[in-house]
Sequence to fold (462 residues):
Amino acid sequence: MTTYDAVIVGTGQAGPALARRLAGAGMKVAIVERGRFGGTCVNTGCTPTKTLVASAYAAHVARRGADYGFSAGEVKVDMKRVKARKDEIAGASTRGVERSLRNLENCTVYTGHARLRSPREVEVGNEVLQSEKIFLDVGGRATTSGISGLDQVPFLTNSSMMDVDFVPRHLLVVGGSYIGLEFGQMYRRFGSEVTIVEMGPRLIGREDEDVSAAVAGFLGREGIAVRTGAKCLRAARRGDDIVLGLDCTEGAPEVAGSHLLVAIGRRPNTDDLGLERAGVKTNERGYIEVDDELRTSVPGIWALGDCNGRGAFTHTAWNDYEIVAANLLDGGKRRVSDRITAYALYTDPPLGRAGMTETEVRQSVKKSGRRALVARADMADVSRAYEKGETEGFMKILVDAESKEILGASFLGASGDEAIHCVLDTMYAHAPYTTLQRAVHIHPTISEWIPTMLGDLEPLKD
Fold:
């Protein structure tokens, strides 16, 4: 048994940063990793997928050469080279995380599967690590339940898609949300026929209906088939094809393809962590229950990142680290509830989101009687988007009529994932929308249209 001031399980976005901060404060730290260093983001999430998105975007623009006055000839995608580029970029990040931890003073790296043995002990193989402070940053993985016959056919997840070095003839994607849409569009641009199957009535159901419709529209114009309302899915083999049986209100009762990607959700990596031996509580979905400062039900144990169910993004995991570090070392009182919902969907064009959706604002208006304002602009009216020839989408901002604070925004369009930060920063400052409205933005940019929009706010109608 070896005693440490802190034991960190997992090397996702929160764990390594916390290790560096604690070790820098003079604490003796152990950090445990059972697989590749860097977690989901570096290995199977943000870094590799956005690298693939960039390759797909380049191929797409090359095919549109005539729109810009040139011809690139026939565009041929070499998936082995695309994958090699992705592997190099993601691999550099993975190696960088591991190298920084192994070279970190006051930090010992353990490789292997960690399990809690008690509220103060962590087992890693034959080693027992003891500490008064244990931090769980174990992440999550794809869930594949709910599809009959899936165990009888080969299928891919976001993780195994990282090994694909060819262009599938026809990629079937089950799941019409962020992961499914990004992979669906990129592989369509690489040259695959693509069908996206969604069990809900529309794509990305957590977003407003106008956002869902716009995304479905530009995906359709790229030749992607979309099937929604698929209440019952059945997978089977038929020769060399994978066949999905669908119970949909419209369309054929089945669709066949060469490869199947399952992107229906995520689950936390908590089922083999020994939580029950330490008395750490989880909810019905397996997520570790935490309070507003990320403390679990057991004093001295914290949960950060995807495994706590309080955010499923790299930036929320990083903020988890910031909250814990500030409260432990700086005498802070930072809380999860202080952060504003914000994320992006990296289709082309991307969706940038901050705060409440229009649907949520309407529900709040109905419940509280508050009055709200809304402004909307089509990307076709934004000079920079028009000049770039990328006019799909729109921008929408919602404001509280009395406090004048911004309630939320949806920016679906060119640079929407960047421009949304103008709104997000104003929201964090609790400044009235007039602060942003009166700002002088640079021309020509996407962001310059935001003050113009805020000058055209109208009452949100029923």
In short: Residues 63 and 75 are 6 Å apart (CA to CA). The chain has a mean pLDDT of 96. DSSP finds 14 helices and 24 strands in the chain. The radius of gyration is 24 Å.
